[in-house]
Amino acid sequence: MTINIDEALVLKTADIGRAASKHSLKINTLSSKKSKSPVAQGARVDDKGPLKFVQRIFSKSRGSNPVAIKEISKSCGRQSPVARPDNMNHTPAPDRQQHDPNVNQVEEMETQEVETVETDKIWVEEFMKGNGGVVMNDVMKNQETSSSDMPLACLDAEMEDDEARSEATFQFTVLNFRSLKDSVLSPPCYVRNLPWKIMVMPRQAPSPDRQQQKSLGFFLQCNGESLKNQGATCYMNSLLQTLYFTNQLRKAVYKMPTESDDSTRSVALALQRVFYELQFSDKPVGTKKLTKSFGWETLDSFMQHDVQEFLRVLLDKLESKMKGTCVEGTVPRLFEGKMTSYIKCKNVNVSSTRVETFYDIQLNIKGKKNIDESFKDYINTETLDGENKYDAGEHGLQEAEKGVIFASFPPVLHLHLMRFQYDPITDSSVKFNDRFEFYEHINLDAYLQEKPETPADYTLHAVLVHSGDNHGGHYVVFINPKGDGKWCKFDDDVVSRCTKQEAIEYNYGGHDDDLSLTVRHCTNAYMLVYIRDSQLKTVLQEVTQADIPTELSERLAEEKRIETIRRKERNEAHLYMNVNVVLEEAFDGHQGNDLYDPERAHYRVFRVRKQATATELMEMLAENFRYPQSHLRPWPFSARSNQTCRPTCLDITNDQSKTVADISENMNPWNIFLEMLPPDSGFNLLPPFDKENDVVLFFKFYDPKQKRIHYCGHHYLPIASRPADLIPILNKRAGFPPGTPLVLYEEIKPDFVEKINNYNEPLEKVLDELMDGDIIVFERADNRHEDMELPTCQDYFKYIFYKVEVQFVDKTVPNDPGFTMELSMQMRYDQMARAVGQRLNVDPFLIQFFKCQNYKDTPGLPLRYSYDGILKDLLVYCKPKCPKKLFYQILSIKVNELDNKKQFKCLWVGPNYKEDKELILYPNKGGKVADILEEAAKVVDMSQEGSGRLRIVEVSCHKVLPGPEPELTLDQVTISPPRLYRIEEIPRDEVNLSEDEILVPCAHFHKQVYATFGIPFYARVKHHEPFQALKDRLQQKLDIPDKEWEKYNFAIVTNGRPNYISEGATINILDFRPNSSANATGRPWLGLEHINKTPKRSRVNYLEKAIKIYN
């Protein structure tokens, strides 16, 4: 198999490696059989030897300008290690027999031989373990093209007469290629300051005999630098590249004052950073800091958005941020145009005009051949006649023409091609992939109100292309950076040179049999950026270092320096460990078991080399705390089998030459208690400690009145000491008179404190497995009262062990912050309900609780009031490392009555049908629909002018249908979606209908009868009644002002077809009666046609939320 490198390089390089179309460069793919010996070029295969790839880079003179190529690569600043395979050669593995007879044929190189001279040799060995062996060698640049011999411009001039001239030849040797598992890249060979690499990729594909056939693919890669994609931010990357190359805007962004801005919340600073890195960085630029400055969460970066909407939001934000600065007004000066909307009467001299501003123009492309037809359609006039005549004041209703005309076009013109439009049939947005032609140069004088001083000639600067459908897709952008017709393609982090045809004609969309393309039908231009020729040099003026404020450069350089340090720390993290130092002050005030809470402690963190010795660690601690080493003694914390963590002895004298990793037993982080000699102790050294004969004990005092623990320090004692020897020490520490009787306990594990009964036996016999770090808890023996809530420390520690903070959230209130209560995990349901009821001042029986869904932060199934478990069982499904949470709602009936009730969710609507709200009712399980209405009557507010009677209806797609009959049992009523029921009060005039009256369903729609919206309703209609009487009744019912009511049109909709009702018509109720074969949903209804003031957003995907920049 062979590949054409012309095409690969067109896609992957800045036009450097493109050969002439008549001189295609091909790489040989050779069989591994020894009978086919490899030649000097191409893939070299040997059963025992390495696999070697030789690649030459060629330059072409015709069709491309090498000098211009150099300028483009410089202006774009392009280098990137990221590759995307385009075309590949495949070398079959030696152990797989080939079935294709052409596979083993060697193809000749269709290019001239080029003499090469080795000037540099690079030998790199990598991927030697488990990935084969790789060697990059013999990187050869031709003497005549070496940058050290002559300037690049001279080289370009010299190559003018050469069809395909080699600039460099380099090869990549893969050792032991059979064991190659992953793709490997050769080290870069820099030609014209661009990194060229050979990528080798092992592949497996099924052969004709259905067996997996191994092959080896390779291709030449050269990527320019651009923007990284965070997940679904290609739309943003495309637009940022376009704005970046709008150089006048880039200059203004640089000059925005951001000295005092928060680096994480400032949109201006984040955009400055992106532009700065695009201009000067040689790596792909990340946009995470920019999206973070928008106030977006991580999920927002994975949501596809509309590029035109993002442009509007971003420009609005920039315009507001520039107010009051030296660059105020830059955005409107660059992007703002003006258009005049007008209405002109035909028969009288009356007209109305209004001037509006725009930042982009939305062009309709459906049924339009090119951009000229779209502009003509945009300014096309609409005739106002018939029922739609214009109100000309004293002249009455007049025929008129309505339209728009452009007053001025901006220097930078954004044209939004409306490929996404609403489809009423599917009730969704669809993408139109029709062919639509646009041009590199356009003149817009014909669409201006007055002839401009300078012609409205525009040059195409950028083409934003969307691939995909209304559910999502991918954006790329083609940019003409200098407006000179030399185009580049920006696809996230891949930048490449391309032809004018690829940038323009290939993105017309539709099908074109004349173009031999592999472009998908759904790939086409979505947004165009034109720059006015008279402003071209100003808008695209070069941006230099002098245009960037020194303060900004220094700040960004400092950020980069700090990031480099942090990156180095991350790369060297495996060589270091953290030592968390806890001082004795951290033990004061701790109210739980052990000496401190590891999750809340204030550590002094030291980053220590794992190979540092214990002596070096002590020197570091002494230097940082400014204490002599003789005044410090470390006590590492050690986890015990009884779920406690206590200080243990560290023999620094004997372990001083050991490494920190060995002493800590590779714990990371390593927590230690650092004992310090108190300055007022009067000693020059810490008291000696004999690890064989001494023990260190820690002391706590429990006060039952305060229900608090007080830390009382630590002490060294001989192992042979008795508990009685501790009494004087503890009285002194607690400030009690000598001889005060004390009760001693040993804190053994979190929920167990054991009382010491024998004070005269040695500690090693009295205490359970005497060890360093044991804790003695004491309390006064003469201060114990059984009527106290927690009279002993045993009661206190049991309470602490089961204590938990629970957050209660009202599930009926969106984003309710809730409230937090401190409860015991041993609480029963009724105890918890009483505590919460007291907190809410609500009867506990009116509160229904819900536990969390499995590890989700959403309410699950409700709890029965007879639940016999404990609170601990309800919290096991809460998300880990998050506050314990339960949900609740306040009911209208007692929770113990719910067992005999059935929940019924419906809507309640007021008498003017303006808005509805959710209603939750609890009728008896064996009840009827009439019981639902009785329950609703107890909780809803009825109108004083109403009938006091309720009815239930069904609502579907904003249309109203008859509800279930009152005598129907609840078991026969479907309560789950898609059925939605609504309860409403029956108007007085609809309670008793005469024989010539019926109730007609009414619904709102706009233009298409499928586009229903708003709240539907029933209206009383009388046979042979003037239609005007019905209109007056409807206006009063809906409470709509006269001026707005004049814009309403009315139609009888039958089987999806509207029949508009003319003025002066008389109602025939037979028009509203359904055919005998029609079902409930097919019966005629009265449609009120008017503008929907809350329309659906026309966007790629209706499920995505609107773009918003929060900061």
Automatic annotation (TrEMBL):
InterPro entries: Papain-like_cys_pep_sf (IPR038765), Peptidase_C19 (IPR050164), Peptidase_C19_UCH (IPR001394), USP (IPR028889), USP7_ICP0-binding_dom (IPR024729), USP_C (IPR029346), USP_CS (IPR018200). It is an enzyme of class 3 (hydrolase). The keyword Hydrolase applies. Keywords: Hydrolase, Nucleus, Protease, Thiol protease, Ubl conjugation pathway. Its main location: nucleus. Residues 225-533 form the USP domain. Residues 68-102 are annotated as: Disordered. Its EC number is 3.4.19.12. It comes from the Eukaryota. GO terms for molecular function: cysteine-type deubiquitinase activity. PANTHER family: UBIQUITIN CARBOXYL-TERMINAL HYDROLASE, UBIQUITIN CARBOXYL-TERMINAL HYDROLASE 7. Belongs to the peptidase C19 family. This is Ubiquitin carboxyl-terminal hydrolase 7. It comes from Pararge aegeria aegeria.
